[in-house]
């Protein structure tokens, strides 16, 4: 009597636990399928920090492949257009040590410019442009849409007549940045110049 | 006294009491400045995109001839302010020179005016009125220069109940609005009725500081026969910056404009008296904005006062007319002493937003003392009318901590300068904020650009994939046609069926992506028609390319199984 009671309570405990296990397992499985995250969210985050010039200077065909490679453990210092700030942001995101830039940093933003009188209309640069920023047709003159150009240099090499220049990007007035003289603020009073910079006599 | 409590409850926080120095420029009556021989008209005298020139060099223009048309939604037209010949057009400005007059006529040449048809705003259709505002080049004359026609159209997306006439003019020195009201109170109120009609507002409230008794008297006389809406004149205590849009709305109506929002979000539209006068002139008289009232003041002038000035007049000419003492001039300030900017060049032209020019001597507005470190006294917090934490913003701005700046609502700063005014260490706080704001804006522009480049790259990838898939499909079809007579039936049906199923799933997913992109585009276009949609269009095109590729792959696979 006692034995069978114990047996029943033992079995019921096992049954309840097994039932719970199966139930929650099914629930987890369902939720896992239903709310499956497509793609790797970390790759998305890395990709968002890259400058999206699609220049391929990192050795990968575009920013997203490089983001995937970083996620697989590649170095974070292969992006010259991004420069030090991108390396710092990536190091921050991934918890890695920031490394010095592998390659030469760009001094200023540049855009491709086609010297139109020399263009022979070969369409080679159009095929090379990763963001479709060059318009033109076979045996017609080509030109670069300045607003869309990311300054990646990829059109320079295929050009058979070398008629593409990289020129500094023109900055619209709306993006003007005030010039600040941060140096004066942190000096000891006796080290400062007598007169603060101010609009002197007109 | 319940009223006192209510007033306290409605008041905006902070504020300072700088010396007013307004009487100097109100002693002389309003007069017309002499007609300039040459005007320089910048294409960007308003917020938004610069206007696009629509005249050619050498063309003869009259006062009021359209020179440049608005470019896109937030922009404004530009008109000739004197009659003469267009002598220069470049990307930044248009120059007009008066015609040479044959001797005997004196220096004053003719001033021919071109006007549009007069409109009666009481009977005219709202569409006709809006169209008139579009082509009249009227912008907010208080200082920000926001195109008025855009503000008039705000009703399309917000329900409005109150039109506020912002006559507080809280900044020291400036008296342009005060004088406008003294002389043209009835016209200003008529302009307010016009704008209230366009906005379907139910009441008009004039907010004015108690240091302008003459203007208040003129307004009260004009308000007696205000039709059709009643006009309430609310005289408020003089305290800087009660003329800030958000601060005035809080004070008059007790409504708080949400962070990052517009007055329209709380059902209010705010206009400056000068703007309302210009609106009335544009509609009633058909005269586009070609002149404005400017306060010329400061101790370096012999005849300070308010002058009606043609836009584009070089400041040197104007100041000389007001008796500029060249040797005493130390700083020329455009705007007021609190928010204005010091100009480096006396040949700058007067623009639509030039409400005041202060020709100050060295004693009057001395150079700021050397900056000392912040001692965390908290005086700036007490006076901030936007309830921000100026010293925290100062630290973060200097450190370039952009994330924290946004979290501490840097963009709610109205740059009133109250914090810099009280700072015992003489830190130019507002300069820091302006610099940080510009940096954050640029960062935002760059982020959007990178995102756009990414979407174009994705589109290109999708297009190449689609072309490849279509080529593959054609090849399969050719192969199938060649094979059919020789061989019937399938050998690996199972794997092909599985392939088709996975391809069909991919095709359904691509269809869903297209629908989603279409929906996002439609929703954004509906919510904000002014926004640039090209990026969303690229994303939609990418989704369509993906769908085409999936279609091509699927048909290729079907060809294979049927063969």
TrEMBL record, chain A:
Q: How is the cofactor bound?
A: Binds 3 [4Fe-4S] clusters.
Positions that bind [4Fe-4S] cluster 1: 55, 58, 63, 79
Q: What class of enzyme is it?
A: translocase
PROSITE patterns recorded for this chain?
4FE4S (PS51656), 4FE4S_FER_1 (PS00198), 4FE4S_FER_2 (PS51379)
Entries under Gene3D superfamilies matching the protein: 3.30.70.20, Electron transport complex subunit B, putative Fe-S cluster (1.10.15.40)
Q: What is its main location?
A: membrane
Cofactor(s) needed by this chain: [4Fe-4S] cluster
One GO CC annotation:
plasma membrane
Task: List this protein's GO terms for biological process.
Answer: electron transport chain
Which compartment or compartments is the protein found in?
Answer: Cell inner membrane
Domain (4Fe-4S) ranges: 38-96
Q: Organism's domain of life? A: Bacteria
Binding positions ([4Fe-4S] cluster 3): 129, 149, 152, 155
Q: Which UniProt keywords apply?
A: 4Fe-4S, Cell inner membrane, Cell membrane, Electron transport, Iron, Iron-sulfur, Membrane, Metal-binding, Repeat, Translocase, Transmembrane, Transmembrane helix, Transport
Residues spanning the membrane = 6-31
Task: Mention one GO molecular function.
Answer: electron transfer activity
All residue ranges annotated as the 4Fe-4S ferredoxin-type domain in the record: 110-139, 140-169
Q: Where is this region: Hydrophobic?
A: 1-32
Subunit comment for this entry? The complex is composed of six subunits: RnfA, RnfB, RnfC, RnfD, RnfE and RnfG.
Record-stated family: Belongs to the 4Fe4S bacterial-type ferredoxin family. RnfB subfamily.
Role description: Part of a membrane-bound complex that couples electron transfer with translocation of ions across the membrane.
- List the protein's name: Ion-translocating oxidoreductase complex subunit B
Q: Which gene encodes it?
A: rsxB
TrEMBL record, chain B:
Write down how the cofactor binds this protein. Answer: Binds 2 [4Fe-4S] clusters per subunit.
Quaternary structure, from the entry: The complex is composed of six subunits: RnfA, RnfB, RnfC, RnfD, RnfE and RnfG.
List locations, semicolon-separated: Cell inner membrane
Q: Where is the composition biased (Basic and acidic residues)?
A: 1-12, 19-30, 468-479
Does Ligase appear among the keywords? Answer: no
Chain residues that bind [4Fe-4S] cluster 2: 384, 413, 416, 419
> InterPro entries annotated for this entry?
4Fe4S_Fe-S-bd, 4Fe4S_Fe_S_CS, Ion_transpt_RnfC/RsxC, Nuo51_FMN-bd, Nuo51_FMN-bd_sf, RnfC_N, Soluble_ligand-bd
Keyword tags: 4Fe-4S, Cell inner membrane, Cell membrane, Coiled coil, Electron transport, Iron, Iron-sulfur, Membrane, Metal-binding, Repeat, Translocase, Transport
What sections of the sequence does the record tag as coiled-coil? 533-560
**Binding-site residues, [4Fe-4S] cluster 1:** 374, 377, 380, 423
Q: Where is this region: Disordered?
A: 1-36, 468-498
Which Gene Ontology BP terms does the record give? electron transport chain
Encoding gene per record:
rsxC
Annotated GO MF terms = 4 iron, 4 sulfur cluster binding; electron transfer activity; metal ion binding
Q: Which family does it belong to?
A: Belongs to the 4Fe4S bacterial-type ferredoxin family. RnfC subfamily.
The cofactors it requires, by name, are:
[4Fe-4S] cluster
Tell me, in a sentence or two, what this protein's role is: Part of a membrane-bound complex that couples electron transfer with translocation of ions across the membrane.
**Natural source organism:** Vreelandella salicampi
Which domain of life, per UniProt?
Bacteria
Question: Among its keywords, does the record have Repeat?
Answer: yes
Under which main EC class is this enzyme filed? translocase
This chain belongs to the protein called Ion-translocating oxidoreductase complex subunit C
Pfam families in the record, alphabetically?
Answer: Complex1_51K, Fer4_8, RnfC_N, SLBB
Q: How does it sit in the membrane?
A: Peripheral membrane protein
Database matches in PROSITE patterns: 4FE4S_FER_1, 4FE4S_FER_2
